[in-house]
Specification:
Shape: rod-shaped
Strand content: under 5%
Order of helices and strands: H
Largest sheet: none
Number of helices: 1
Helix content: over 70%
Oligomer: single chain
Number of strands: 0
Structural class: mainly alpha
């Protein structure tokens, strides 16, 4: 195995720390994106439920027509 100088070892350690920091940031960004997408999906679902309820209420409040 090749012997490394102190400068090379410090550089290698710095690169390893930087890589782990970047992967941590990527993981945090991925988690945040997933949470935002889930919240957006729930908001869309609640919005469509409200419009369905409003349509149903409008239909229920309509006076019944006689069939004669």
């Amino acid at each position: 195995m090749k012997r490394r100088t102190a400068r090379q070892l410090v550089r290698l350690l710095s690169d390893i720390r930087h890589a782990s920091h970047c992967s941590t940031l990527r993981a945090a960004a991925t988690n945040r994106t997933m949470a935002l997408a889930s919240a957006e999906r729930q908001a869309d679902s609640a919005e469509s439920d409200e419009s369905t309820d409003a349509t149903r209420e409008a239909h229920d409040n309509k006076p019944a027509q006689s069939e004669s």
